[in-house]
Specification:
By secondary structure, this protein is mainly α. It has helices spanning 2-7, 9-22, 27-45, 56-64, 71-84, 87-99, 105-120, 124-141, 146-157, 167-176, 180-208, 232-250, 258-286, 293-317, 323-340, 346-379, 382-391, 396-411, 417-423, 425-434, 439-450, 461-469, 489-512, 515-518; strands spanning 475-476, 483-484. The chain is globular and about 90 Å long.
Length: 551
């Protein structure tokens, strides 16, 4: 028995951790306890050197001294302040009105707002709960299928997992030893593509089951002009004019690539906001306006979050700010936006601060426990066992990616993304690097995969968040006065299944088309290094004359 334990210490240790986590014990304490127990067992068996434990205080201090992780409380605070200041409510109401009577319009609005909230909050709980409270009653009121409504709300809320400034991408970059800015830039396009797939699914549902996602009735459409029209042409002209202005301002700039796009968008946003403010002032003092009510409302609602996205992500992408500095600016910007909307209060700040402190402490405690576990695991050569196991898989890189993603997908049924990031990623990263896999690409693939941990029935946290705000009993709708049936847990679970399938498809797309991620490296050099020749000019030196030796 002792010989078997010595020969298989690493796999037994890993299996013990998985079993303890599945039993429901807190992840932070489970990690620390398993690490210390097997350190003691390893010392008794002569498989673990006691002096390894002397490095433990330094590893714990390294967690507290990690500047990258400081971005987590900043982005969390930013997201909670924005969610409580009513930005999500304004966005959902306005964008829902914008799609109007289009079949599935509310579903498209939820996906669009989910992506926008993801790019401003980065917090799944805030996105799911706010959209569940605001949009679910409206979707039920106008006859949406309950599975469709709950599924698209939960899925759109989880976009905060993969669209920057995602908290999991910060942790992923830290665990893989890569730049958070590169991880953000690499994940941006896959996040938008995933949002597009959600909208595409909603479109298919409207084609196959028209009654599952009806459009708004005409009497529910607001922001009309005196002649009854909606003034959408005015909004289209403003959008095109903003794009042209952004291009015009940057046409002679020496900036290229993603920086050019970001700065062009910023100029366009400022132009649209200036035009909307000018229109409001002219209408206030003269009664005349050149923008429709729909165009003005859309601009006033869209510009603040878009400006905040530039303030956070734009400054990170173009290299002006680090992720931690971007998070600090985002938190300050969220407070300013809340004050501008006159919705900022001491109670709101207190609630956001308390929730931020709880989440930050949760992350740090898991990371400390993971440090204890990894120290012992490395001490018993667990990293060698994992690396040999993964690099010897058939199929090379593709075989490795298929196995790892299937493994993470199964674990995501039982573990949340923080636990997966702190336990699994440090074990997979070295093997991936040894196989020549780009770690940013690898991190984005796993980030999309780990997003399913929020949607897996029956333990998906997004489903729990939605369950907490969905009506559990029948109720009277406050607008129509009709009695509405409750939303069952089974309907929420079945509504999530198609979106889990879409997320798996997205994992395959990122594997098949790595260019979606690899653009973070910028434009590669067109010079072939094998053609470079270094020629050293021949210089004729004068003869050295040391003279005759003197007597």
């Amino acid at each position: 028995m002792t010989a078997f334990l010595i020969a298989n210490m690493a796999p037994i240790m890993f299996a013990s951790l998985v079993i303890i986590l599945l039993l429901g014990y807190p992840a932070a304490f489970s990690l620390g306890a398993v690490g210390l127990i097997y350190a003691f067992v390893g010392i008794q068996l002569g498989e673990f050197r006691p002096d390894f434990l002397q490095a433990l205080p330094e590893r714990v201090y390294g967690v507290m001294n990690n500047d990258t992780l400081l971005a987590i409380p900043f982005f969390t605070f930013m997201g909670l302040v924005l969610e409580r200041s009513g930005m999500a409510e304004d966005l959902l109401d306005t964008i829902g009105q914008l799609f109007g009577t289009i079949r599935g319009g509310l579903a498209y609005a939820v996906v669009f707002v989910g992506a926008l909230l993801a790019a401003t909050t980065g917090v799944v709980a805030a996105s799911v709960i706010s959209m569940g409270l605001i949009s679910l009653p409206i979707m039920l009121r106008y006859g949406y299928d309950r599975r469709m409504a709950t599924g698209i709300i939960a899925a759109s809320g989880t976009l905060a997992q993969i669209i920057p400034p995602s908290l999991v991408l910060i942790v992923m970059a830290d665990q893989l030893g890569k730049s958070v800015g590169d991880m953000y830039e690499g994940a941006f396009i896959p996040g938008l593509v995933l949002a597009g797939l959600y909208a595409g699914y909603a479109f298919l549902v409207t084609l196959i089951f028209p009654k599952a996602a009806p459009g708004l009735p005409p009497e529910a459409i607001g922001f009309r002009e005196p002649d009854g029209s909606r003034g959408l042409w005015s909004l289209l002209v403003l959008f095109l004019a903003s794009c042209v202005f952004g291009w015009f301002m940057m046409r002679h700039s020496e900036v290229h690539g993603a920086d050019y796009v970001v700065l062009s968008m910023f100029n366009g946003i400022l132009f649209a906001f200036f035009v909307a403010v000018l229109n409001w002032l002219i209408h206030k003092f003269t009664g005349f306006r050149f923008l429709s009510a729909m165009a003005q409302q859309t601009t006033f609602v869209m510009v603040p979050p878009l400006f905040l996205i530039f303030l956070v992500l734009g400054t990170i992408f173009i290299g002006i700010a680090t992720p931690t500095e971007g998070g600090a600016m985002g938190a300050a910007g969220a407070i300013i936006l809340g004050a501008a909307k006159r919705r900022l209060s001491w109670d709101l700040i207190r609630q956001a601060t308390e929730s931020t402190a709880k989440l930050s402490a949760f992350v740090v405690f898991i990371l400390v426990g993971a440090r204890v576990f990894s120290l012992t695991f490395y001490g018993v050569n667990g990293h060698v066992w994992v690396e040999h196991l993964l690099t010897s898989l058939p199929g090379g890189q593709i075989g490795f990616l298929i196995f790892v993603n299937a493994f993470v997908f199964i674990l995501a049924f039982f573990l949340d993304f923080f636990e997966l990031a702190f336990i699994i990623i440090p074990l997979l990263g070295p093997a991936a690097e040894k196989l020549g896999i780009d770690l940013i690409w690898f991190g984005v693939i796993l980030g999309v995969n780990m997003q399913t941990s929020f949607m897996h029935p029956p333990f998906g946290f997004a489903l729990f968040y939605l369950r907490s705000v969905a009506p559990k009993d029948s109720y009277l709708d406050r607008v129509t006065g009709k009695r509405m049936e409750a939303v069952t847990t089974g309907q929420i679970y079945w509504g999530a299944v198609p979106f889990v399938v879409i997320q798996v498809i997205m994992v395959l797309l990122v594997i098949m088309f790595p260019s979606m991620v690899m653009h973070y490296k910028g434009v590669a050099s067109t010079i072939d290094p094998t053609t470079i020749k270094i020629e050293i000019p021949q210089v004729e030196l004068p003869p050295l004359d040391f003279g005759q030796p003197k007597n």
